[in-house]
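Morning F.,

Quick status update on the modeling queue. The single chain you submitted on Monday has been processed. Sequence for confirmation:
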Amino acid sequence: MIVINTVLIKKSDAISSVVIFLFSSFFMPKGITRVSLKKIFNLIKPFNKNETAIRMGLSRAVKAGLVQNVREENKVYYEIKEAGLSRIEEWKDIKHNFWKKISLKKSGWNNYWCLVNAQIPASMEKRKILINLLKKLGFGQLSRDCFIHPFDLSRELESRIEDLNLEQYVNVFLAKICPYQNNTKLLNKLWDIEGLKKKYQEFSVKHSAALNAWDTAEDEKLITFCHSFIHDFTEIMKVDPVLPSEFLGANWEGESVLRLLDHFNRVIVPRAREVVGRIIIRPD
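Structure tokens below.
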């Protein structure tokens, strides 16, 4: 499981994404929901941002409702707000779904597919909501109304289908595919396997050597590495359907990335927490 939490972000070096990263990864786990402007500056400076850029980024974060600035005893503090909490919850959802599928993968595939038949009228807005959910869970679209995934995700769907009052339109099955079906062709039709493979390869090239370099370095820029590592892994989690090993082969690049992630959590994350902790306890 990923130890540090983060959120979905469109631009990896945006000040707003860094601020939410800091709150979700380091502040909130310690029960801290607001931090002084001075400490925010000290934590963001290693990202090669000047004072003007930081102030403008914080202003945009406030306008977006991610944080709120509060003045108290001649000090300015930044406090996490509803939109920021919402992004963190969205991240937690994606993290939960990814690791749920990893757990199912480790247990082995039983040759059954989870098939969702969603015959929802196109005019219903709820159709888009359900389809977006299916895609986030990693389902491939077999036809206009049919979506499949090799692992049983029916429990993850059940409550959402009920919440949307779509029981009369949606049916979920566990089924086997006839033996004559070519799984390779099916996989390539449903998911961009080559594209995913490339993402994992690029992640390894970018972070493998850097991970070793940060093992012994004592530098506040360690926080920037954590942010980059988690941001890039988030982008993978968003698109990886997590397929059975039988489909991907013994040398699937994703397995080596998971080993990098384990090292990151065991070695780098505790040290990053120490770095942030030292800055937090400094007097303003």
